[in-house]
Design goal:
Chain lengths: ~140, ~350
Amino acid sequence: MASILIVDDSASTRIAMKVLLQREGHTVGVAEDGLQGLKAIETACPDAMVMDVIMPDMDGYTLLHRIRTHASPAIRALPVVCMTGRDKLEDLIHGLGVQGFVRKHRGCLEEITEILSHELEGTTPAEAIPLISQGRWA
Amino acid sequence: MMLLKSRGMCCLHGSAWFVSGVLLGIGVLGFWQGLLATTSVLLLLFASVLAGVLAVRVGSPRSEGVDEAPSRSGVMAAHEAHAVVDGDSGLAQARTHVTDAAALFRRSVKQAKQEMVLLEMSAHGLVVELERSRGALDRVRRERGRFTRSFDGFVQDFSECAAAQEAELEDALRFGLEVDVAARMVARIAKETAMIALNASLEAQRVGEEGAGFHVIALELRKLTGLVKEANAAMADRSRDIGVFLPSIAKNSARMWEACWRVTTEMHGHVDALDSNYDDIIGGVAHALGGGETISDRARDATEYLQMEERMAETLARADALIEQEVTDQKFGLHGAGTTRGFSKTS
């Protein structure tokens, strides 16, 4: 089980992704923009982060730049999966150093989980938690 | 005229000297031969008088040629002067050119001003349309914001419903487990009751006729125990059904979440693509708007330049009038009467 931070200004994306990643057995935290995301990373360094690019207050580029230039080595090495519907941003985002760039489409969750499982190989493998087991739903 | 006069004088000089020379030659020859001595003397005297008269009349060609004999440039100047008086001059040609230029200038300036007005109006129309387009794009952006907020609200509602369903499913699961426990307890009670009824029936048979009533009771008790067992078995079956249904409901709920996720990501993917296109369009509109305003500014500048050109056309027209006046003055011999100076000053 890994701890994953979702940073996205879209409430629907946060909710849906949180539920589905929890189903995969991960502990999931959410943030609405780059500022909140950075605070969450500094407070409790997650194992990985999934983020949107275009966000208010602090966008994905700035957040990624702040992460990659952070004083803490653990935060600098944080695996990041970028998820956006803007194809044009791919080169720019890759230039800043991300482990995955996923275009928003109906099958992108599989891509995200595949990247995350590859990046989180060192962590304890997450067991898919049945929806009804141990008194827990999703 | 001067030229002709000069030429005439030149011929007179030549004839006089020629006649004087001939008469002198005849006189000298006659004198030397002793023939007609008197006639020769007279001829000599006549030649001398003729030469003197001619010298007085027209002057010596050698002494007056510097001032009066026409040079080549003088001849040309005389020709030009003559042509000016006749109106076939460079000035007249210049006047024609200036007239044509002034007319052409006026026409082109008028046409250019009309074109500039049209250009400025077109640029203004373009700017207005682009402003309208930008307004429409802003409305699209606002609508997009409303749509995504509505969608987020829908997913939020969906999430809350799913959470409530989760709680209800957990309650149902707990209830099913409790029912299962109760059914097992009831089954054990029924089994023990049946055993007690059997023992009571056996004891009643052993006592004999006095125990007949207890025997009947024991039989009824066994019947009731059988009914309890049947009811308990049915309850256990329902409990097992619940145990099957609940995970199925949960699985369907998970599929709903997956469907929700697919719709969410796809919708946000499209919205992001729309945003990207929106940014491109709004950038293009802003650029075009700047271009339209620049065209408008340039058209205004060009109109100002055209006003200068208009003044130039007026100047040409004035020059045309002055040249005409000059030509007229020359034709009527009024050259130097003041108009030429006026033209020079104006020029």
